[in-house]
Amino acid sequence: MQKSNADKARQKRQRLRNEKRAAALHVKNNKHDVGSNAYKASLDGFKLKGSRLPRYFNVVINNARRLIYSRKLDVDNGGVSRTMSERTKRKLFEISVTLITTCDLMSGQVGKAKNIGFDPTSHDALMLAHAKRWGEAIPSSTWYRFIDMLKLAGVYLVQEVKKADEEGTIRSRAAYKWLSPQFLQSIGVYSDDIRAQIKFSYQGFWGHPRLM
């Protein structure tokens, strides 16, 4: 008996949950350098220890922490200012780090580099990357709620992509995703020093290294 679309979608969600849980457990059990302990977010400061990420991420991620914890990213919903809780700020910081470290900082595009062009990634892949980085299997509903907040704050930009399949049916594809120029500028990516470091780190690759 052929499975319905609902059954397939349900199985896909379950696979993603299992993958996120396994990735998060692996990080916790192996105490990876790039994990929650490497990115302590507090108003006292930020210190990156033992990470394989290029050195300029120390500055970029610390600036992102300062921006988010300064309440400059408070979402103004219908003219009513929403003061973010400590938990909300923490989650926004963590998700921002996940996006920053899966981003081509030269263009701001989030996704996977290819020899020719750039392959937009899915939110499922980003949630899995988040689990590997932070040791937390974040629920999809929570992920999308914070992504919406980053959209409203002007941090995250998206362009939907639709394409006809062989039968002529229009289907959605992984959307193109960017971190906004305003956000990248606010966290120091466009400064001469950081820009030079980014360009230097990209040398020797076919354009863009994977930063995981």
Short description:
The protein is of the alpha+beta class and 212 residues long.
Quaternary:
single chain
Low-confidence stretches: 41-45, 205-212
Order of helices and strands: HHEEHEEHHEEHH
Separate helix tally? 7
Structural class category: alpha+beta
Strand content: 5-15%
The 3D shape can be described as globular
User: How much helical structure, as a percent, in the residues?
Assistant: 40-55%
Q: How many DSSP E strands?
A: 6
Distance from N terminus to C terminus (CA atoms, Å) equals: 41 Å
Mean pLDDT: 75
Strands in their spatial order, largest beta sheet: 4-3-6-5
Instruction: Describe the largest sheet.
Output: 4 strands, antiparallel
How much is the radius of gyration in Å? Answer: 18 Å
Please tell me about this protein's structure.
- The protein is of the alpha+beta class and 212 residues long.
- The protein has helices at 5-30, 56-69, 86-100, 123-134, 140-152, 181-186, 192-202; strands at residues 76-77, 80-81, 109-113, 118-120, 156-164, 170-179.
- The strands form 2 sheets. Strands 4-3-6-5 form a 4-stranded antiparallel sheet. The protein has a two-stranded antiparallel sheet with strand order 1-2.
- Strand 5 and strand 6 (170-179) form a beta hairpin.
- Helix 3 crosses helix 4 (123-134) and helix 3 crosses helix 5 (140-152).
List the SSEs and their pairings.
Elements: H1 5-30, H2 56-69, E1 76-77, E2 80-81, H3 86-100, E3 109-113, E4 118-120, H4 123-134, H5 140-152, E5 156-164, E6 170-179, H6 181-186, H7 192-202
Antiparallel strand pairs: 1-2, 3-4, 3-6, 5-6
Helix pairs in contact: 1-4, 2-3, 3-4, 3-5
